[in-house]
């Protein structure tokens, strides 16, 4: 049975997101993508981005590419990492820019993602 990721308080939603990531089941991707466009907390949105990377399905690619253009701080590092996990070669130009970002977390994840893609 597929868990509903939008049910419960913040902690319950977080555990559901983490369970979806551990399952690596692409059936959760539509719910995860919908939660990114919701009023979900920033912490849970970071978990969602990481879950999309762990699931590794390319149908999250466009949303992650979009996030790579406007996300900031630690979220941007998570997006870069997830783009590498899903194998998004379309992300290479953006990842190259992020590899010299001011934030170390972003730089490290962008460089890791580039290494996965080249």
Note the gap between the termini: 38 Å
Structural class: mainly alpha
Mean pLDDT over the full residue set = 93
**Count of individual domains:** 1
The largest sheet is: none
| Number of separate strands | 0
Could you tell me the CATH topology label: Leucine-rich Repeat Variant
Apparent shape: globular
Which strand-content bin applies to the residues? under 5%
Radius of gyration: 14 Å
Summarize the structure.
With 118 residues, this protein is mainly α.
Keywords:
118 residues, mainly alpha, Leucine-rich Repeat Variant
Q: Any overview of this molecule?
A:
This protein has a single domain, classed as Alpha Horseshoe (Leucine-rich Repeat Variant). Helix content is about 70%, strand content about 0%. The chain is mostly helical and about 120 residues long. The mean pLDDT is about 95. It is globular. Helix 5 packs parallel to helix 7 and helix 6 runs antiparallel to helix 7. It is built from seven helices and no strands.
Strands, helices and their partners?
Blueprint: H1 10-23, H2 29-36, H3 42-55, H4 61-70, H5 73-86, H6 92-98, H7 104-117
Helix pairs in contact: 1-3, 2-3, 3-5, 4-5, 5-7, 6-7
């Amino acid at each position: 049975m597929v868990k509903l990721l939008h049910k419960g308080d913040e902690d319950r939603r977080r555990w559901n997101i983490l369970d979806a990531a551990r399952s690596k089941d692409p059936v959760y991707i539509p719910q995860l993508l919908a939660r990114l466009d919701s009023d979900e907390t920033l912490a849970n949105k970071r978990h969602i981005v990481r879950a999309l990377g762990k699931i590794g399905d390319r149908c999250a690619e466009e949303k992650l590419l979009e996030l790579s253009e406007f996300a900031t701080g630690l979220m941007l590092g998570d997006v870069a990492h997830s783009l590498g996990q899903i194998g998004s070669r379309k992300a290479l130009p953006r990842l190259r820019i992020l590899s010299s970002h001011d934030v170390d977390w972003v730089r490290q994840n962008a460089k890791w993602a580039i290494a996965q893609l080249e």
